[in-house]
Predict the 3D structure of the following.
Amino acid sequence: MILVINTGSSSIKMALIDMPTERLLAEGVADRLGEQEAALSWNISGKAQHLEISSSDHLGAMQQMLDMLFCSIDKTGITAVGHRVVHGGERFVTPVLLDAAVIAEIESISHLAPLHNPANLLGIEAAMSSLPTIPHIAVFDTAFHHAMPQHASLYAVPYRWYSDYGVRRYGFHGTSHHYIGLEAAKILGRKFTDCKLLTAHLGNGCSATAIAGGISVDTTMGLTPLEGLVMGTRSGDVDPGLHAFVAGQSGKSLQEITDVLNRQSGLLGLSGRSNDMRVLLEAAEAGDERAALAVDIFCYRLAKSLAALAVALGEVDAIVFTGGIGEHSSEIRAKTVQQLTLLGVVLNEQRNKQHGGQSEGYISKADTSLPVLVIAANEEIMIARYVSEVQNQKGNIT
């Protein structure tokens, strides 16, 4: 069994997976850490359990989650723990066994993902304290994108910024893009390495990727997870001159402006209402013009980015939607695909409303359209595969 842990700034998610069968044995989440309403829940062998958290810090929450799990599962059956880490920089391009030196290196690049890596490290520290005798393996969101060609990964800035400071486009959500790429190839009945895919991971964080030859050849996120598509609270692409302009107008510091772009922008900033797409779609239907505008900008920027990423592929075998929005919002998929007629995409409206679940993932019209698929995200399974790869030293899981 492999325990997969994904630690965020205010949450911890876990999944216990039997390998190599990939059977989900248990999944749990601790939410609102640091708040009075902090609570955790587990679903173990189909049985739901809930508990208020007496200690809402990461270490205490981690211990309570594990205690609850081990009341039902024999922990001696766990052979390894896999940790999601958002940014691996140029140093970490494959999963790696965690030790003090590796943890120090991850900490040294945390400035590249200040909203994510520090929280990931808290989870690692807490889990290693609770489970000190088994291997802990880090899996990096950036790793799947590391082989992007330099014409896609480098910015048009002084080259020494790259050579001296590591300034380049790294990309994120790599575990998710890799997983849905593999699943899309199965649905298409083709080898993954033979497919040319456009994948869209849409949740509170959003990114799109061009996949060819089994690797990411371009993606929308960059040096940090702030670049690219419109997201829940993140702006995505903005003019680089925006910082200086807003600083001059408002007196805000560079850090304050960056914080606003990360935490108060995107759907939330445009709508002034919410970062939740479900809330905005309901508000737009009720006549809220700013909510409708936020939805329109989100879909336009997504369609524009998917069309641009097609340049990296030359030809496209399928477009794939995943993530909370990508899987569950037929409206967002429809509004996006309507703007991609240049790629030869035509939706099957009935299948789109069914989220692809009753049509093997397809939501496009058969024989008359570029295939469009909906595939449920499962980063936990992909992380478990990576961990098994490290354990078995096979070196290739595709």
In short: The radius of gyration is 21 Å. The longest strand covers residues 23-31. Residues 394-398 have pLDDT under 50 and may be disordered. Residues 289-313 form the longest helix (25 residues).
